[in-house]
Write a structure and sequence with these properties.
This protein is of the alpha+beta class and about 525 residues long. A 6-stranded mixed β-sheet has the order 3-6-8-1-9-10, with no helix packed on it. It is globular.
Length: about 525
């Protein structure tokens, strides 16, 4: 049966998308997981994969054209299948596949009283694979209006507010506060009061966690499991007998106790922050559940200290950001053939230049601000370094969107200074300070951390003389900046004390040749050692 592929919602604010490129043409075979098209959203250009297998029977939006979210993007089905009725808008008795939710659902019946919408964990960044719910702003049973902030979600790059695109009652929460779920896992269900959504949970279950706020009691889940395992098929009257029900409940409690320590999400969070082993804490809540007061009042006894604690071992769970950084850097290092070009610049003129600017400017600038401006101007002259590698082409960017690496507690964030070559040094300084501050507070928006064409990483403020970095793909190069060091240098035939700085350019050899990188560094050297030229 033919299935309709709609224009997906690839960002939380996306209203329409533009098809940049089709990777399949009508009549081609499509396998599940194949990249179907490249779609430009309001925030980034992203590859969109198919969740179906079959023949691409129809393309609804051509390359270069735009359409609203949920517009007909394509139809995939059996070879020679007649889809004329679908194209003309007749969609009776078919399954509509909403790729933004990755869940098959029948076309809604307007006469049905059981109306609801499944809200899945959104893909809030181009590299996001999982999301963690930091906070819910609504509870089950509460009214939700379109545009209301539903939850705060931590991605691999930032913590973002996620707004509802639907109105109705919050019927179900699939991922609790402090828990994570893959993209497209059921996040919530919104609809009419009393709507029957049990079939959706059966077809696509949420993550293996049950909230104490959920409409389902964990003990009931265990009871149902025990019933199935023991093949209890008695009548309802038999099952409801006090004796049998009590017996099963007791087995359930024992099973729960043996499997894991019951604890509220808040208790788990506080225990993690305090570095406490929750398995050592006796719970005072219902059924022995560990709750907040148990964590707050807990004190280790000598008998509680394990060998690992005596050896002072502390385990820290990897955040989504840390996992994604590891994955992306590993991919970059092992897919892009890196090579490195190291140079040393005379910084005497640059130091004088900065002192003069700061003597009459309210907005004090840093050496990093000067270097960003000089690098941006150099990239404008060398777009072959300011480039991106694709298997079938190399794209040279005439605009300079500078990624500025910022260290945060969980890793590294790279906010993007757009059109950096067109900004003056003072503007660069103000924006970089703002980026750094909001990066540490996880307040950067998705659009502010996407779309870089080149990246600078500066560890000079930490006293690092020189280092190398892994390329921040899809960039073709990254510049590593060390500290300014005093050392003996030769000037006009005499040995004097000078100020120098070492920089290392890491390049992707697929798109940037050695001579190309060297010419770029020559231009950068001229700007940095003669900083007045930056103002011309």
């Amino acid at each position: 049966m033919a299935e309709i592929i709609n224009m997906p919602r690839l960002s939380d604010t996306m209203e329409e998308g533009t098809v940049v490129k089709w990777f399949k043409k009508t009549g081609d075979k499509v396998n599940e997981g194949d990249i179907l098209a490249e779609i430009e959203t309001d925030k980034a250009t992203m590859e969109f994969e198919s969740f179906n297998s079959g023949i691409l029977l129809h393309i609804g939006i051509n390359e270069g054209e735009s359409a609203l979210v949920d517009s007909l993007l394509a139809i995939i089905g059996d070879k020679d299948e007649d889809v004329s009725s679908l194209i003309s808008g007749k969609k009776e008795n078919i399954e509509v596949l909403d790729e933004s939710k990755n869940i098959k659902m029948p076309v809604s019946n307007s006469e049905s009283s059981n109306k609801f919408e499944v809200i899945n964990m959104p893909r809030l960044s181009d590299t996001m694979e999982k999301g963690t719910v930091v906070k819910w702003f609504k509870k089950i049973g509460e009214k939700v209006n379109e545009g209301d902030i539903l939850a705060e979600i931590e991605t691999d790059k930032a913590t973002m507010e996620f707004e509802s695109f639907n109105s109705g009652i919050l019927l179900h929460i699939g991922i609790n506060e402090g828990e994570s779920g893959p993209v497209d896992t059921i996040l919530a269900i919104i609809g009419e009061k009393g709507a029957d959504f049990a079939g959706v949970l059966t077809a696509q279950p949420s993550i293996d966690s049950i909230s104490q706020k959920s409409e389902i009691d964990p003990k009931e889940i265990q009871v149902e499991t025990l019933i199935k395992e023991n093949e209890i098929t008695s009548s309802d009257n038999d099952f409801n007998s006090v004796e049998k029900k009590e017996k099963i409940n007791q087995e359930a409690k024992t099973s729960i106790s043996n499997q894991r320590k019951l604890a509220s999400p808040l208790a788990k969070k506080i225990a993690k922050e305090k570095g406490l082993d929750i398995n050592l804490i006796k719970g005072s809540g219902d059924g022995g559940r560990v709750i907040k007061r148990d964590i707050v009042n807990f004190q280790y006894k000598p008998t509680d200290i394990s060998k690992s604690q005596i050896e002072s071992i502390k385990e820290i769970s990897n955040s989504q950001m840390r996992k994604t950084i590891a994955k992306r850097l590993s991919s970059s290092k092992f897919t892009a053939p890196h090579y490195y070009l190291s140079v040393e610049f005379d910084m005497d003129n640059c130091i004088s230049f900065r002192n003069q600017l700061n003597s009459f400017s309210e907005n004090k600038i840093s050496f990093n601000d000067i270097l960003i401006k000089a690098t941006a101007l150099s990239l404008a002259k060398h777009p072959d370094v300011n480039s991106t590698w694709y298997d079938d082409k190399i794209v040279h960017h005439n605009h300079v969107h500078m990624g500025v690496a910022v260290a945060v507690s969980e890793g590294l964030v790279v906010p993007v200074l757009r059109f950096a070559d067109q900004e003056n040094i003072s503007q660069i300084g103000i924006k970089v300070k703002d980026f750094a501050s909001r990066a540490r507070e996880k307040k950067l928006t998705q659009s502010e951390i996407e779309g870089s064409t080149f990246t600078i990483s500066n560890l000079g403020m930490f006293g690092i003389k020189e280092f190398t970095s892994i390329i921040n793909q899809p960039n073709s190069a990254i510049l590593s900046v060390g500290s300014i060091m005093k050392k003996p240098v030769v000037k006009e035939g005499e040995i004097v004390i000078g100020n120098t700085m070492k920089l290392t350019l890491a390049c992707d050899h697929r798109s940037v040749d050695g001579a190309t990188g060297s010419r770029f560094l020559e231009t950068l050297k001229l700007f940095v050692e003669n900083p007045a030229t930056i103002l011309l």
